[in-house]
Amino acid sequence: MKRRSFVKKAVLGSMAMAIGTDIVFGATMPKGYRPLVLQDPDPYKLFGKDKEMVVLNDKPWNIEAKAHLLDDKITPNKYMFIRNNGLIPENIDVTKWTLTIDGESVKQKKTYTLAELKSNFKQYTYQLTLECGGNGRSEFDPPAKGNQWTVGAVSCAKWTGVRLRDVLEDAGIKSDAVYIGYHAADVHLSRDPNKEPISRGAPISKALQDETLLAFKMNGEDIPLAHGYPLRLVAGGWPASVSGKWITRISIRDKVHDGPKMTGTAYRVPCNPVAPGEKVKDEEMCIIESMPVKSLITYPKSGATIKKGKRLNIRGHAWAGELEVAKMEYSIDFGATWNECSIEKPVNRLAWQHFSATVDFPRKGYYEVWARATDSQGSSQPMLLPGWNPKGYLNNACHRIAVKVV
Ligand SMILES: Nc1nc2c(c(=O)[nH]1)N[C@H]1C(S)=C(S)[C@@H](COP(=O)(O)O)O[C@H]1N2
Ligand SMILES: [Mo]
């Protein structure tokens, strides 16, 4: 009896969290009942998102930011994109949440409670750039199926947690380990409990990096439900699909992980360039690892008007997967000539970098400001679309804003 009321309290607690306030007469709510607000929810209220965020899909929820919303150096929840492949888990009981480390290449399968993870391992905080592999997909021609992200499927929040490496080493990693794969608590769209919406992973070398965390805090608070509460993997600089949300199990694999969305064409690009629209065999598709160099002008908003004779201060962020951004430039003549921006160092490895510049316009009229980042190995963003690929990944074309001088 005691236990039952305890479970009910936990269920009510997680519903209250999803709604954002207490369910006052929750104690008399029928068992298994879903409050109306959760049946037909307002995504902005439900997820605490700003009204200017754009809903691309509601089953599953996919919501993106606009460039000017990403102006903060540390992305707050209200401007953070949501990318879900399945249904957000409900009725989370954090007191019962566990993480299991298993797989062919674990020395000893081990299960940890959240409290154990927090107390047994040292905690670290890093700001990490998470960009969806499909960010920018909407520009590809012929079009690629999937969420038509424009530029807003990127974030750089501050994540706190324990190093995945410390936990994996505590369970023990066999010498034949090559990959890790995550398993999570979200629900397949079919609601079939035997199907996982997504189960991706990364090579063991990425799993063992200092900045790869099992996080339980985002920007100093509990991770918002939509972003993986109560435990998520964060692997900055790689397609954000590697950063599994609502993590319950991590397998240390003796081969490349083969969970859903790891195989076939998912999160893969042709190993060699192909012509637009060309069919590519599965064997000729390679897994995306570090993301390409990219940048975003976050101020001003595209469409800005300024007075003749006034200079325009522009600013934004640039990132380059596992590399650093070495140079940042802007052009006001459609890429014919480029001027340097100033660019800051990242606060830590795998965090985006901030740039700014003061722009002079020669006379009244219409301009576009294009921004181009170059990484530490000398690769720069393509001015317009990069290589077409069947699933529309890795569009790192220069971000462009319109400006009128009047
Ligand atoms: N369990 C789980 N983890 C997941 C996903 C998901 O659907 N389920 N989506 C992935 C993808 S494709 C992306 S781009 C990021 C998005 O993270 P965010 O919603 O916190 O911005 O989460 C990744 N982790
Ligand atoms: Mo993604």
Automatic annotation (TrEMBL):
Cofactors required: Mo-molybdopterin
DNA-binding listed as a keyword: no
Coiled coil: none
Key word Oxidoreductase present: yes
Sequence ranges assigned to domain Moybdenum cofactor oxidoreductase dimerisation in this UniProt record: 287-405
Alphabetically ordered keywords of this record: Metal-binding, Molybdenum, Oxidoreductase
Pfam families: Mo-co_dimer, Oxidored_molyb
Annotated Oxidoreductase molybdopterin-binding domain residues: 88-259
InterPro entries on file: Ig_E-set, MoCF_OxRdtse_dimer, Mopterin_OxRdtase_euk, OxRdtase_Mopterin-bd_dom, OxRdtase_Mopterin-bd_sf
Protein name: Sulfite oxidase
